[in-house]
Design a protein that fits this description.
2 copies of one chain form a homodimer. In chain A, helix 1 crosses helix 5 (140-155) and helix 2 (73-84) runs parallel beside helix 4 (110-120). In chain A, the strands form 2 sheets. Chain A has a 9-stranded mixed beta sheet with strand order 3-4-2-1-5-6-7-11-8, sandwiched between helices. The first copy, chain A, has a two-stranded antiparallel sheet with strand order 9-10. Chain A has 258 residues and is an alpha/beta fold. The first copy, chain A, has helices at residues 14-23, 73-84, 105-108, 110-120, 140-155, 222-227, 243-249, and strands spanning 2-6, 28-34, 51-57, 64-69, 91-98, 125-130, 164-169, 179-182, 191-198, 204-213, 230-236. Chain A is globular, with a radius of gyration of 20 Å. The longest helix of chain A has 16 residues, at 140-155. Chain A has a single domain, classed as 3-Layer(aba) Sandwich (Stationary-phase Survival Protein Sure Homolog, Chain: A), CATH 3.40.1210.10. Chains A and B meet through strand 3, helix 2, helix 3, helix 4 and helix 5 of A and strand 3, helix 2, helix 3, helix 4 and helix 5 of B.
């Protein structure tokens, strides 16, 4: 099995490296990932600047690891599928991200966007993220082991081409993972704040605060199950049409004046 | 009515200025928009750098126009709602974008992302885009007039809080607009290419090609209706859960080895 691996934390991120080692147990792994951190870049793509590409080799044995792209996660996916890979991959994995991508974070996430981009091209894609906790050392090898187990269990069901999954792993230091739950995406809002400052020249600027908290997640969603210590698996799709509203709007009258 | 206007082409873009003039016919308009072009930045947000903010005034009469933010469209929306506006807006409009945002372009679009961000906060938001055609001079005043008419017709139905709409206007020079159609988002893939080059130092780089064509759009979607010369209105939502797959996966067996 040929596996294409990407992420949004960059090709040198420990989460990607740990997940690569695990995925090498189940297939051949080629990496096409951003050269630098691209957290929270969503589904952005690079139109205005060129995409530089560099071959990267494994530190340990100097084997070919893949390509670093000076672009976004979605750029990496496009370049991998259209230009860099000599044969189409059987599976695409994105991660292992430092920080969960549950709830509306799914829409901010470069990790998930790379998987969605792969699904545009009718590839099966799985985004994997590990919840980040301040002051805890992330156990990447253990988390990557869990991610690989989830990937194998998804593949055992031979999902249709273009299937898309979002996997989140809870903090491992919080007393062990309780199991795996299939959950829908939570859609309730997060509370966040800005830190307003003035620069030495008198101009106002804002820092996005690290506090980004979902106070009232809907029950039985990825956010709640993750908080309870479960690994969550959410099947995704990218049709944003609001179907009930579409049906309602079919009855609206429209007109155009000149 | 208080209207918050943003875009992804930047606060100095002609599409935003034309739409502002039209929206001033139906309410008070405050602009919070990116300082520079942010096309195809999707739902990215700025975590690693500070967001500088500058007050901007109307060239013509020096009246207060709003704030330019050195960040992404979604940053603008967050800052507007959490920090900059003294009162909550009644409506959020994003656009008028130079280039259509139909089909999977909805996911790349900063224009649409700003509207989705507003819907996170349970505001009613409408993204508006004008299809771009090479070598044609875009008739911003006419397109903005159409966009304002569509906005007014949506508001006439008093949509629930958090309602989200995506409006696309066909090229006006192609023989006139045929009417308004409510359509779902097309989800079929676009064909695109990269232009591979070598820089003077021998490094490989790629340019994203301007060719980005949907050869087989699904019938009766935003992409097909727009191509036929209709203004399209698509109600959107941001729950990416694949519900049929979620139901199927409820029967899957899961387990974790240590």
């Amino acid at each position: 099995m040929r596996i294409l691996l990407t992420n949004d934390d960059g090709i040198y991120a420990p989460g990607l490296r740990a997940l690569r080692r695990e995925l090498m147990k189940i297939g051949e792994v080629i990496v096409v990932a951003p050269a630098t951190e691209q957290s929270a870049t969503g589904h952005s793509v690079t139109l205005l600047t060129p995409l530089l590409v560099t071959e990267v080799f494994d530190d340990a044995d100097q084997s070919f690891l893949g390509w670093a792209v000076e672009g976004r996660p979605a750029d990496c996916m496009k370049l991998a599928l259209l230009e860099l890979l000599t044969e189409p991959p059987d599976l695409i994995v994105s991660g292992l991200n430092a920080g969960s991508n549950a709830g509306i974070n799914v829409l901010y996430s470069g990790t998930v966007a790379a998987a969605i981009e792969a699904a545009f091209y009718r590839h099966t894609a799985i985004a994997c993220s590990l919840e980040y906790t301040k002051n805890a050392r992330l156990d990447w090898p253990k988390a990557a082991d869990y991610a690989r187990q989830v990937v194998e269990q998804i593949l055992a069901h031979s999902p249709a081409k273009g299937s898309l999954f979002n996997v989140n792993i809870p903090p491992l230091e919080r007393g062990g993972v309780k199991g795996i739950r299939v959950m829908p995406q939570n859609v309730s809002v997060y509370e966040e704040k800005f830190d307003r400052r003035t620069n030495p020249r008198g101009r106002t600027y804002f820092w996005t605060s690290p506090e980004f908290v979902c106070h009232e997640p809907h029950p039985d969603t990825d956010v709640t199950a993750l908080a309870e210590g479960f690994i969550t698996v959410t099947p995704l799709q990218f049709d944003l049409t609001n179907r009930p509203m579409l049906a309602e709007m079919g009855n609206w009258q429209w007109g155009l004046g000149e």
